[in-house]
Amino acid sequence: MSHIHDYEELVLDALEVVEFKLIRRKQDLEDDSLVFHPLMAHQIFGESESIFGYKDLRVRILYTAGPLHIYVGTEYSSRVNEISGGDIKADNVVLTIAEKLPEGCFFINMDEFLKTLDKADKFQPFGEKLSEHQVTDAQGKERFFEIYHCDYKVPAFLKFFSRLQTFILWFVDAASYIDIDDTQWSFFVCYEKYKNDNGDYQYATTGYTTVYEYYAYPQHIRPRISQVLVLPPFQKLGIGTSFVETIYKHYQSQKNVVDMTVEDPSEDFQRLRNFVDARLCKGLKSFERDAIKKGFSKEMIREAREMFKLNPRQCRRVYEILRLYYTNLNDEEDYRAYRLDVKRRLNAVHYKQINDIKKMEKANVDTEWLRARLPTPMQRIEQLNEEYQQVESAYKQILEKLRD
């Protein structure tokens, strides 16, 4: 009887054995340079992100590059079922993945999958084209991208989108599928326009953004950017920046939009948004060097909201980034004035807590336990310095991009 430790080598890391590929033509099936791996697998294989029971396992998840029809299959040299005489069973990998995919949107038969590839050259973007940009990639090749705004009312688009959003389980932490029946969702999808082997133009899907249009009294909306995903083969090509700028432009012209917000932004996305916003506001009158040196103003809030639908909190962040941009770090007085300005904002929350406690004490409420939770003055100074350093280093990354 084999012992369980004989099988330890059959516990595999899903992040290594799962591979994705976007297929533009049949030759791509054999091209390993196109492979990319998931960033996470816990939403599919649990916290350990492991798969049990195989030797030399490859889990292949293939998508046709434009319409995103999906094939899921496995290859392996042996399986624990055979080794153990059937006593121990290997994980059913295809079934585990299939349970997370929308019904009827994937193939487990390669021939059927290839039939969809034959028709993929007919694929056209859904919706209305809002913007285009071109980039020269690391290999010196000119590449063309287009962003479209898509309508939830088109059934074929919703089917396509349900395939597109399957990527988030592997690439966006804590993400979940959105309810596409909710009419307040707005969809923005980016495609690469490229020439195929016959010299005809075709489209490959590169990523998407969803925006939720919250109702604001009496007949306004507050659009909130919810998910932003650029597929790994298309990262570092300016698509994220182009998404944010395109979405801003789309909502800027709409009189009923109050301002734009972002749902729980990741650090990367917050940095991207700060860069876009700072670059836009840099050209506004209230954000010019002389105005900025006088401190944060209501005029900045008004102008940033009117021109770019920025909310006051984001406006303040942009002010701090641009004020640092105009601050001479070698001039002790100039730099000190900047640090004090940011620290005042960082300290506001702390002072609010103290004032709240004082109000409660006036009303004869016992606040001893609350006071015990406050940092001592020395601790607060240390905390404040640490908070400030984090803010400044985040801003400096944005300034590097702004100066490029």
TrEMBL record:
Give GO BP annotations, semicolon-separated: subtelomeric heterochromatin formation
Q: Which residues form the active site?
A: 263
Among the Pfam families in the record, one is: Hat1_N
Q: Where is this site: Interaction with histone H4 N-terminus?
A: 185
The UniProt annotation places acetyl-CoA binding at: 235-241
Region span, Interaction with histone H4 N-terminus:
47-49, 212-214
Cellular component (GO) terms are: chromosome, telomeric region; nucleus
Q: Which domain of life is it from?
A: Eukaryota
Where the record annotates domain Histone acetyl transferase HAT1 N-terminal, the positions are 11-173
Report the top EC class in one word: transferase
Picking any one GO molecular function of the record gives: histone binding
Enzyme Commission (EC) number? 2.3.1.48
Q: Which reaction does it catalyse?
A: L-lysyl-[protein] + acetyl-CoA = N(6)-acetyl-L-lysyl-[protein] + CoA + H(+)
Query: What is the recorded name of this protein?
Result: Histone acetyltransferase type B catalytic subunit
What organism does the record attribute this protein to? Bactrocera dorsalis (Oriental fruit fly)
